[in-house]
Hints:
Layout: H1 3-12, H2 21-34, E1 38-44, E2 49-55, E3 76-82, E4 90-91, E5 104-110, H3 114-121
Antiparallel strand pairs: 1-2, 2-5, 3-4, 3-5
Amino acid sequence: MSGSGYAAIARRLGIDVVIPMKSVVVDSILSHLLGGNVRGVHRVGDGSVEVLEMDVGADAPVLGTRLDELRIAAGALVMLVSRGGEGKDAFIPRGDYAFAAGDRVALIVKKGGEMEAERLFGTRS
């Protein structure tokens, strides 16, 4: 069955959005390739922007850095921070927020900026 066939069935079931299996597979592979701190990679639109979900490493360069002091050359925006595990105490950080080990962050990153995000938020090697 073609992709449009699945979309028609999904509409009949009341499903608004259908995510192609190819996108799920590619995102999963990217998550594994980037590093241990990356929990998920999701391409947006034409793939020129990605949402990264990652854990702040125990000795990450961003530890103690305030959001308003953070400079990411490749262009990224910290959208959400979660403390205390998945979905617990999730909030949109303000400029005075300082990163701590174990924080889970969701970043929107221009394509090509994934490695810099991993370098800043991940564990040093």
